[in-house]
Amino acid sequence: MAxxxxxxxxxxxxxCCSDSFTKRGFESFSVxxxxxxxGSAVCVISLVGSERHSGGWKLNGVQASSSLTSVAExxxxxxxxxxxxxxxxxxxxxxxxxxxxxxxxxxxNLFTGCVDxxxxxxxxxxxxxxxxxxxxxxxxxxxxxxxxxxxMTAMLAMTQHRRKKVPVIMHNESEQARVWSQxxxxxxxxxxxxxxxxxxxxxxxxxxxxxxNKQETADRYGKEQVHEWRRSxxxxxxxxxxxxxxxxxxxxxxxxxxEPQLLSGKNVMIAAHGNSLRAIIMYLxxxxxxxxxxxxxxxxxxxxxxxxxxxxxxxxxxxxxxxxGVYAYTRSLAVYRQKxxxxxx
Length: 345
Ligand SMILES: O=C(O)[C@H](O)COP(=O)(O)O
What we know:
By secondary structure, this protein is an alpha/beta fold. The chain has a single domain (39-344), classed as Phosphoglycerate mutase-like (Rossmann fold, 3-Layer(aba) Sandwich), CATH 3.40.50. The protein contains 13 helices and 9 strands. The longest helix is centred in the C-terminal third of the chain and has 21 residues, at 243-263. The two termini are 32 Å apart. 3-phosphoglyceric acid binds at residues 111-113, 203, 206, 230, 273-275.
């Protein structure tokens, strides 16, 4: 049975639009064809009980068709925020970040960097669990890295979202791609979430370590040297990127393409990687280059920020979809969840 990409609304025609399988569709697909699913991705990073350690933040939680040029302004579907919200001067928006679920090379303990490998079965399960945790938090736009492990994580997480909007990958890599992937129904657009993929959100490029086993590398170069490559701020691995170099591109992309969406009141999710997300969190939390060194992210667990009046407030990890705490943070999140309850009951 071929997997189906299920449109929960009008059974719209796909054509060249790239959307996502449902969980059922993915299960039948992965049973038959393995998990080489092309999808698009979302991110939520969690600070579960995070506290500032002497050396920086301990994160128990965790924390997109690649375009080699920065993505053209995404065609964002009409915002679904009601007009009263949009007239509010002090916009408030949810920012959800997540590191991808476990990948096949994480499982093999190989340096991955910008090599494009899929999730393991465990990584798939982590993504679905993450989706449950954020299933009541509003999402108007999704940004992902250009790598499949982050994109799979996002698409699988969105299968759990209660609003049931369909994430649709924006194809701006050429004029033909943009024209051929147009959606011609306003109603279908309203029930869709634009997904922008950007190489700038990719994992740091690990240079000549990519594909090497982390333990063998330590045996070959020494534990201290490998730790320095992995967790220093400005020392790159051989012919690779340092965290600082990764931050230069990832944070620049965030401030140029993502922050304006938040400032306009759009709720955003980002799907990315351990180091590109450490760089973004360093910006959001104003961490020093020393503090960010001890910032560690696990795979597939959510974190929520609230942007209010241009400031980012870290709100920890939605541990469960009904966790009262998350929705107590802001009125708009509580109202959104209440509307979902009314719509679905
Ligand atoms: O790219 C990789 O190997 C991992 O995603 C991150 O690796 P690190 O934790 O060694 O930076």
